[in-house]
Amino acid sequence: MMSNHGTDVTALESHVDVLIIGAGPAGSFLALALGRAGVHVRIVDKKEAKITSGHADGIQPRMIEVFQSYGLAERLLKEAAQLRVNAYYVSKPEGGIMRTILEPTVKGSRYPFEVTLAQSRIEDILRDAMEECGVYVEQPKVPISLSLSEDESELQSRSSEPYPVKIVLQRPSASTRVENGHNVHTNGAANTSTVLGSASGAAQDIVRAKYVVGADGAHSWVRSAVGIDMVGESTKFVWGVVDFVPESDFPDLRISCAIHTEHGNCMIIPREKDLIRVYVHLGDVEVGEDGRINRLQFGPDEILKVAQKCFYPYKLLAPQGFDWWTVYIVGQRVASSFSVKNRIFIVGDACHTHSPKAGQGMNASMNDAHNLAWKLAYVMRHWAPSTLLDTYEFERRKFAQDLIDFDKMFATLYSVTPKPGDKNHERFVEACNTYSAFVLGHGVQYEASTITDITHASIASGLVIGQRIPPGIIVQVANFRPYELHDLLPSDTRFKILILPGDASKPKQKAKLDAVAAEIDHPEGFLKRFTPAGAPDDTMFDIITISHTPCVAANTLVIPPRLQSHWSKSFMDAQTMCEGIGGNLYASYGVSDAGAIIVCRPDGYIGMVAALDDLAEIGKYFANFLHSTPVTA
Amino acid sequence: MMSNHGTDVTALESHVDVLIIGAGPAGSFLALALGRAGVHVRIVDKKEAKITSGHADGIQPRMIEVFQSYGLAERLLKEAAQLRVNAYYVSKPEGGIMRTILEPTVKGSRYPFEVTLAQSRIEDILRDAMEECGVYVEQPKVPISLSLSEDESELQSRSSEPYPVKIVLQRPSASTRVENGHNVHTNGAANTSTVLGSASGAAQDIVRAKYVVGADGAHSWVRSAVGIDMVGESTKFVWGVVDFVPESDFPDLRISCAIHTEHGNCMIIPREKDLIRVYVHLGDVEVGEDGRINRLQFGPDEILKVAQKCFYPYKLLAPQGFDWWTVYIVGQRVASSFSVKNRIFIVGDACHTHSPKAGQGMNASMNDAHNLAWKLAYVMRHWAPSTLLDTYEFERRKFAQDLIDFDKMFATLYSVTPKPGDKNHERFVEACNTYSAFVLGHGVQYEASTITDITHASIASGLVIGQRIPPGIIVQVANFRPYELHDLLPSDTRFKILILPGDASKPKQKAKLDAVAAEIDHPEGFLKRFTPAGAPDDTMFDIITISHTPCVAANTLVIPPRLQSHWSKSFMDAQTMCEGIGGNLYASYGVSDAGAIIVCRPDGYIGMVAALDDLAEIGKYFANFLHSTPVTA
């Protein structure tokens, strides 16, 4: 490893697997996921330092699950506020407002709540985890040119190691301000190339990368540089947002509230510590011809004044001042493409912009990164052809379009000033319920593709292939300890093969399970065919067996030794003897006593389902998108 | 702060609030608890370095609760193995062994399992937490003399700051071996005296302490120095213990098993990682006249051989060798006294020795420390007279005696070789069930005393005053977030005043609650009478209100502002809208709709119960053991 701070150097050239432009939630998440996967990654950001307040704050239940799969949920939940209940308020005929509905925020998720935490603190969590992989944000640093090799053989090369993207970085100005402390560290374990620190002043940093990812926000430089358009439009709705510690006699200040009144619309989102965030519809604001508004006409005091009108007769004051505020026009756009030749990608706000009120932005952005990370890792490891990367745009652009469609409906219902007798408020509540699973994230569904095979869906009729696998309690056979299945599915880039043999203590199912165990090492089976030559069996596939056996009948001897690489790998779908939890997995997954095999993708989504004795079908599934004779181990 | 490493210095003198001799679980726990309480504490140990394997390993559910109250359970649970199920095995008539019973290990506790983790790792958890308070173990260092002032006025002094205990410490030898790195650090925040590092070689360290605590084990130097006897006797039962990673076809290797056979008795305790601990009854061993055995006649191979006989027809091998082993005679003794003039105390094994098989030793030791810590802090802060310290021996010696009585019965049943037709095994299983709550810890009950007032027990008929308060889910009023009540009762040396007003949304109970709020600042009320002059109201008393109100009727306005120093302080006994948990606290505590006030001691034990409108009774309770006109704030 080398580090070069020479001041006379004006252009340094280096190589990297993946260069990420932008260290917001999407870029940081991607850097973390790739760093964990052992990919040599660099990440730069144009800002002088991390943001410290404001910006996004909502984390949906599915995103908490994703954080958990990276081991980050514990810290998130310690720091964040929980939104467990929604309240709806409307004008009372005699004046003032009244609560019409009080209902749980979340249904059908592992975490029965949304959380809110300032984007800056989300970024802290991600950066701290990145740094454990030796990845540090280099800032301030901006790209000034980007080019992609036009040599098709280089772009498609599998056995050589092309670096077809050339990007030139530099400090945004010759400023002498101090950069943050860690921006030229390199990873001692995972990185194999030399990373050079940029010299101060006008020195340029020429980077040759296998892949470049633009995570540089709604006004993405990368997106512009490669000529990707944003498709969509702005609305006429102008909203203001303000964060503060309130003084109020309003009783529902610590739950999520939508307030629809004749004097205006307002939304309250409780935040970490004693903060709340208030959104108000600013209504009739003149929008310039460029689609931008003159922010100078509004300050936080004006935003608070509108909120105070909605709150009447309750008081709402900000005696400690404002933590952060902004004004925005709701605009809904999706990038026309998410990638150029599978070498340059965009993620996050660079791909999609929409209104913030459903708390989707940061989730959508980080889920883009989560979706892309394992695919990049597989292609870079030569485990999969580059066509696997096509599924990133296929899956995430469809999601973005669905999100924009939802947002259009939602933002309109939210922004219209109710009039006596209209059903706007009722339609709003109804829409919230209809789109709940999508908004919360567990309803997001990827369409059928090479990696999402719905052929045998009926074998697990309670599952939706292409959705994330639902949570469930299972019990370890050896010690009767209950586990949440999700905790056994870390985002470690491995496919999880869940073998559900029915009741393995019954001779018929035991015989079938023994047959699976005997067949699993077949040279033409998926395990030997796709696992890199010479690598351990659990390199790409993590096998977990879950028998539908009551506690008293279960013991470790029921599961064939071949399926117990360790005693901790065998589970039962049974109720625990003490708390009486568990025992509902087969039923909720719609798996009969004939059993099933469920293939869970590295990102936690269900990739396919097969019959218990149909290992051949599993092999066919993986052949769709994996190399069967890996070049390297 | 000073530190002196001069080699010519042969005697340094310093002052400290509390000097702890011995850094095993009892001493380390006490140092942590006192360090957290801001007490200037030093702790020394005769060992060259920390132990690294073997010794105690069992942590009972109540002890997990105590760890949680110090914020340490998360790490404990991450590292430890969980024991959720017990199995009992006996000889089969045709040879070999069979399982007769499989049952949950724990009933009626917050944590439905015991955990096992090597004592060394428990000590790591405690030391890391101690070090956050600036307290570091000084080792190797031994006491060589101990003396207590005989000046009664000094011993009883309240307004001056006597240091009546003089103790001389030195390194155990002139060894030049390197001490561990942190042994002369001092606490920058809490410590007000100078701590001097001991010089190397024969240099002496003269310490003048307010209090000295001997946590120096079964052969306690402190206990001998002050002439406290151990009362009790040895048995004839000799047991061997060995820790190893097994290779075995025995199906129940990862649960707690008691195996009673005609070929011997054996017990298996699964441990962290892949270790197990095996206890075997070595039977007819010659005990020397001094009550000690010749350990040389046994090694781990002999212990394993006995276990193998019990295991037949299952195999039990230790292919990776042994992690730790020992041989011991079961002896049951309790110290005749736990204190000398409330200035010198003994805790842990120095107070009580018994058989290890019920997994009690480390729990009893740390609970001694937990019981003593807050009392020492109160007396040192001049919040309570020294008579409060009488309750340490009163409570913990009674517990130790109960433990020895249980252990005598248990060890006998365990060590007797069963004969066909006897009912020994059945009696053993029955005893395990009878003593379950005591063994698990939540059944431990302190007798009535100045700090345990059973007068109004009928007001909360589901509680046992003198036991730890049972766990329960309550819901925060402001945001509908469920909390385990225990998580609101940290070991922060404060009394927790739980106000249960019945349904505060009903006018009658609301009026009573308003009256409590109005009365709480009365100059003669407990809050003003005992809180140190000038200190914040929540210095000694943390007030939490729990209304028996359904979610839909509850809002923060129901609870009087005086009882909501922060919105997070008001709760309801209600079911959550999403998961449907909670709503059972009043019922399980046996509190009627008339309400109650429960006073929870700083150690989590129920101190007293009063009627909702009977603040006077609460004042009387505290007057029993607190100074009503504190000398210092």
Automatic annotation (TrEMBL), chains A, B:
GO molecular function annotation: FAD binding; oxidoreductase activity, acting on paired donors, with incorporation or reduction of molecular oxygen, NAD(P)H as one donor, and incorporation of one atom of oxygen
Pfam families from the UniProt entry: FAD_binding_3 (PF01494), Phe_hydrox_dim (PF07976)
Name assigned to this protein: FAD-binding domain-containing protein
Domain of life of the source: Eukaryota
This protein's UniProt keywords: FAD, Flavoprotein, Oxidoreductase
Species assigned in the record: Botryobasidium botryosum (strain FD-172 SS1)
Domain FAD-binding: 16-142, 176-406
Residue stretches making up the Phenol hydroxylase-like C-terminal dimerisation domain: 444-628
Family that this chain belongs to: Belongs to the PheA/TfdB FAD monooxygenase family.
Listed InterPro entries: FAD-bd, FAD/NAD-bd_sf, Phe_hydrox_C_dim_dom, PHOX_C_sf, RIFMO-like, Thioredoxin-like_sf
